[in-house]
Specification:
With about 210 residues, the chain is mainly α. It contains 10 helices and no strands.
């Protein structure tokens, strides 16, 4: 329970924690942010790490001169692309072994075939849009790998989605994060960003549930 409370506190006061990080590590904070974004997109076991909100906060501190905007945009774009790439190949290499050994009941051959067909038809849009949805953003490249989506197709949309995701949210924070009303209500703004980002997934889940009943 204490861990959950601490985790929520980090999200709600991301500006305070990021400020402390910058004061303690200075320029090396750029690489710490790289590591966080890489893990959030590249490791299926860390979907709980901040993504959208962290990019917005990073842009806000870049506008204050605490972080270098050009370095942030370049490093975090590389982190996002590299993370999805690792995630894809992990799914590609581990997926068949999971099916063969049947270690996870819900991973069935028919699901993999269906995923492959889905990604072949909607793959590009899925990879790009998934960037803006927590949890789904972490698992989309993994499932694409399991579904053996063509890597050349995946890579194109991985790059487009990764760069667009980092630039849009970081620059949003850069230009609007220090407006007095935003700065004074930063925790509320972070909550709004999180709610907006998970809304598409909630709506889709609700639609699916209505169709099955």
């Amino acid at each position: 329970m204490e861990l959950i409370t601490y985790y929520i506190d980090i999200f709600l006061h991301l500006d305070r924690y990021l400020s402390s990080l910058i004061q303690q590590y200075g320029f090396w904070t750029h690489f710490i942010l790289f590591f966080i974004i890489f893990c959030e997109t590249g490791l299926v076991v860390t979907p709980f790490l901040p993504g959208d909100s962290l990019l917005f906060a990073t842009g806000t501190f870049a506008a204050r001169g605490s972080l270098e905007l050009t370095i942030v945009l370049a490093l975090l774009s590389v982190a996002a692309i590299a993370g999805d790439t690792i995630n894809y190949w992990f799914g590609f290499l581990v997926g068949p072994k999971i099916l063969e050994r049947k270690k996870i009941r819900w991973v069935k051959k028919e699901y993999i075939d269906r995923t492959h067909q889905f990604y072949e038809k909607y793959g590009g849009k899925t990879i790009v849009l998934a960037r803006f949805i927590p949890i789904i953003r972490t698992f989309a490249p993994f499932v694409a790998g399991i579904g053996t989506m063509a890597y050349s197709r995946f890579l194109l949309y991985n790059i487009l989605g990764g760069v667009f995701w980092v630039l849009s949210l970081t620059l949003l924070g850069f230009f609007f994060g220090n407006i007095p009303i935003v700065k004074d209500n930063f925790s509320l703004v972070i909550v709004v960003i999180i709610v907006i980002s998970i809304l598409p997934a909630v709506i889709e889940a609700f639609r699916q549930r209505r169709q099955t009943h």
